[in-house]
């Protein structure tokens, strides 16, 4: 056995070997961390992270490619970021941008404005103005919500105008509710409500989030009352809402006659045949027969039915 002074060093099987550290230029980490990492989604002002949630020893290559004129094939994370230890979110604001427009040019214009206002990650929907589906907006809300749960600082979703975010007041209220629930701030760059709106800070809460929440409740109440009024008007005109009845008056009369003769309801269902509609030629279900007879028995006026 060689003397202890000559024994080769060995790494613990539980600790990964750390790379030899050659300090990078003083300003290089800051230039790299100015960009969101495409590989691990580490936000600006933070080091890259590993899949198991630790601070990486090296910045990811995809992030290095975002730095102009950087030729180093690899850059080590500075020692003050504690490489190998638990990754920590930066204590800075994290901004997400959302752009939408009917054309690539319109979306690109918004994208440039959002980038100039500090949005490192921008989601873009190129869709018609009245399109209901906005998948990138949903992704932006999800990403902002996740970041808000993890970040030590504040998280903001930025749009150029309020109309970029939703088509109408109800849809806008739903988005505002999602932002408020996640604690994500909404920044509007242009328009009557331009400014930063924080769901946890007054008085902005009352001027935007609470007002939108109240507007949504009004819209829902109006929709319910409108539907109820439509049903009442249809019933007054003798029109029945909902699906067509499986058992019409003629079939009900036949069922009542069979029951009066002492035929059990299951056998009645097997004797009845639907005359028209989607299920013409079929037997009504036992449940339908029971419901029809129960509804007939529950009427206040006696009926004479001729079979």
TrEMBL record:
Pfam families: Phage_zn_bind_8, Resolvase. InterPro entries: Phage_Znf_bind_put, Resolv_N, Resolvase-like_N_sf. Coiled coil: none annotated. GO terms for molecular function: DNA binding; DNA strand exchange activity. SUPFAM superfamilies: Resolvase-like (SSF53041). Residues 95-240 form the Resolvase/invertase-type recombinase catalytic domain. Residues 1-25 are annotated as: Disordered. This is Recombinase family protein. It comes from Actinospica durhamensis. The lineage of its organism: Bacteria, Bacillati, Actinomycetota, Actinomycetes, Catenulisporales.
């Amino acid at each position: 056995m060689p003397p202890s002074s000559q024994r080769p060093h060995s790494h613990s099987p539980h600790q990964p070997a750390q790379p030899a550290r050659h300090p990078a230029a003083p300003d290089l980490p800051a230039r790299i961390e100015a960009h969101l990492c495409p590989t691990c989604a580490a936000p600006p002002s933070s080091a890259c992270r590993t899949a198991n949630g630790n601070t990486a020893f090296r910045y990811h290559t995809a992030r290095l490619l975002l730095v102009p004129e950087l030729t180093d094939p690899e850059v080590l994370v500075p020692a003050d970021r504690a490489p190998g230890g638990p990754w920590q979110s930066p204590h800075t604001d994290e901004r997400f941008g959302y752009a939408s427009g009917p054309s690539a040019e319109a979306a690109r214009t918004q994208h440039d404005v959002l980038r100039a206002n500090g949005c490192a990650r921008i989601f873009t929907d190129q869709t018609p103005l009245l399109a209901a589906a906005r998948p990138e907006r949903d992704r932006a809300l999800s990403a902002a919500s996740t970041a808000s749960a993890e970040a030590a600082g504040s998280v903001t979703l930025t749009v150029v105008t309020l109309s970029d975010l939703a088509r109408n007041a109800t849809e806008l209220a739903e988005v505002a509710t999602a932002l408020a629930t996640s604690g994500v701030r909404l920044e509007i760059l242009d328009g009557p409500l331009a400014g930063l709106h924080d769901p946890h800070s007054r008085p902005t809460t009352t001027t935007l989030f609470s007002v939108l929440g109240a507007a949504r409740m009004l819209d829902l109440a109006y929709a319910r009352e409108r539907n109820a009024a439509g049903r009442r008007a249809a019933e007054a005109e003798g029109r029945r809402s909902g699906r067509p009845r499986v058992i019409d008056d003629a079939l009900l009369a036949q069922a009542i006659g069979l029951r009066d003769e002492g035929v059990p309801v299951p056998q009645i269902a097997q004797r009845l045949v639907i005359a028209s509609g989607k299920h013409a030629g079929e037997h009504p279900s036992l449940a339908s027969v029971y419901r029809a007879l129960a509804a007939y028995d529950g009427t206040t006026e006696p009926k004479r039915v001729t079979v």
